[in-house]
TrEMBL record:
SUPFAM superfamilies linked to this entry: Periplasmic binding protein-like II
UniProt xrefs under Pfam families: TctC (PF03401)
Species name: Variovorax gossypii
The protein's name: Tripartite tricarboxylate transporter substrate binding protein
Family of the protein in this entry: Belongs to the UPF0065 (bug) family.
Amino acid sequence: MNWPTRPLRLVVGFGGGSSPDFVARVLAEPLAKALGQPVIVENRPGASGNIAADVVAKSTDRHTVGILINGNMTIAKVLNPSISYDPQKDLMPLSIICTAPLVLAAAPEVVKTDARGFLDAARAAGSQWSYGTPGIGTIGHLGMELLKARTGIGAVHVPYQGNPQVITGLASGQLQLALLPPGLAEPQVKAGKLRAIGVTSARRSALVPDYPSLQEAGLKGFELEIWTAAAAPASLPPPIARRLNEVLAEIIRSPQVQQKLFQHGYEAVGISGEALVHRVKADTAALAQIIASQGIKLE
């Protein structure tokens, strides 16, 4: 198989400094070494990552791979029927690269108490509080809406271009809370710029072991995970897809890559494309239920 014959393009739906951008850049060098061609990271931010996903879905050059988040591969079409790609028809899942719970983070001046007390204060504040996300339909958005439904919190949604901008909004007091990836939240918490309330995993996470789970605060059954995956156009020939899956699996298994991802707040996974297909279907059903129950629509 005479492939690749030119540089490989990794398309990312968020800007520099975002978690998907970091993941792409961790993969770029070992991918280039394994494939014998340069690997170029191309940032195409906007529409909660769906602009990049659309670029990938429509690519015909056989040398384009998307580094995408949950929403781009699951509920993009559920949330916005008018988007020009269908995740389950136009994208070929290659591998989940890494996963993490989310950290419920708060602005530093917000009432200082335990997680249960914080949720009580957020409930009492009603619509006077606001929360930030990297866009409508992202896991940070759907997770907060699920949290609101489960707790009676009335915080108002404020979408940003990406999580780095959300963190700036929290640190400056423009926002009161947000759900953030651990790798972005922890350095800000250590620097005193943010407060960590808890994590969305079923129990404490090895990524941030000092943070309580929200289940410890009484939110039984509240569990949410973000993942970053590699996907190709559905038109990619199966032999090339198999080669990419094999190469990605080997890279993700390497201790160096696993350590870099862990230090950034992610646990390496590297599951097969077939397993990712099943994960996409299951997550689509679960997230679509949140969208329907909360009446979430594009603004």
